Automatic annotation (TrEMBL):
Keywords: Membrane, Transmembrane, Transmembrane helix
Transmembrane listed as a keyword: yes
Transmembrane segments: 44-65, 86-111, 117-137
Origin species: Saliphagus infecundisoli
Domain of life, source organism: Archaea
Annotated protein name in UniProt: Uncharacterized protein
Amino acid sequence: MRKYAITAAVLAGSLVLFVPLTVTALLGALETIGELFGLEPATGGAVTLLAVALGYVTAMEIARVRLHGFDELDRGSWPRRIARHAVLAAVSLAAGVVLADLLVEGVAVGIGNGQPVVAAGAAASLVALAWVTVRSLRAFRGGVRRPARPQ
């Protein structure tokens, strides 16, 4: 009975924590990229529904990893593994875009208001974000090249 309670708590926690964050990150990244290229933001019902679906997939994958470990990401056939990693990479990229946009705005506000401490803090955070991104991409590339576990 305790095993089922833990599983239910992990699933519920993943849904409550990660679906809204994923939807916000995806829609925010679409808006940021749209503004960057001068396009109208695509935030219609279908786009929102797709973001919710990706949020659900992300939450379920995070729950599986929390319950069974990182090897769960390598289950299934090669195309399914690639699709799983692509979804998680897209969500991570979207979160990075939103965070970078926020930090760039922080630098601009700091400089515009004559607050060098704010600008320096945001700039240092941008450098840290770039460092984490490079490290994550290297780890991702190394993980994809790893042979799949037998089924």
